[in-house]
Each structure stands twice: as structure tokens, then as C-alpha cells.
Amino acid sequence: MNFITVNVTGYSGADMKQLCSEAAMIPVRNIVDSSSFDLVSFSAEEIRPICFSDFELAMRSVRPTVVAEDLERYQAWNKQYGSFVSE
Q: In terms of C-beta density within 10 A (0-12 exposed, 13-18 middle, 19 or more buried), how is residue 55 classed?
């Protein structure tokens, strides 16, 4: 989990949702891509749990959308109008 928290700089909430969805689909794609895949007899128990490497792979395709300028603008707005106390 530390890897994820350290490497998600610039990811919005929507980006994080997409990242988790992508990581969750990797084990499903592994089964679908296997030569023994049979949609008729496919069960949820056949899907392996999500693991660390799934998040690493997902981070290759799901890129952060928040840039430094956006963060600076949000911080300036918060300083002027917001009630959130930042460091």
C-alpha cells in the first residue's frame, strides 16, 4: 500500500477510481486470455485476488490528470476563500 500512496501524486479521486478499476480487471483479463477460458463454466472463484503487481501494471495505463498548476490554483483559492487549514 505504501507504493501506491507514494506514487499517486497528481491522481485525482476519479483517477484513483480508474486505477483501482483497472487493477481489478487484470485478474479477469488473465482468465479471459487463457486458452482454457470457457464463459459458460466461468465462476468468480476462478479469479485470483488483486495483488501489488496489478496496481503496478494499472499505473502504466492510468495516468494522473492533476498538474502542479492546478494544485497551486486550488491552494490559492483555499487560502483566500476556503476553511481548510493547510500546513
A: buried
16-33 tens-digit pLDDT? 999 999 999 999 898 888
The Cβ of residue 19 has, within 10 Å, a number of other Cβ atoms equal to 20
Instruction: Give the position of cell 486458452.
Output: 35
Considering only CA atoms, which of 8, 2, 1 is closest in space to residue 59? Answer: 8
Radius of gyration of the chain (CA): 18
Eight-state DSSP code of residue 26: H
* Domain regions of the chain by residue span: 12-29+49-87
Dump the DSSP string for 43-56: -GGGSPPP-HHHHH
CA distance 65 to 76: 19
pTM for this predicted structure: 0.74
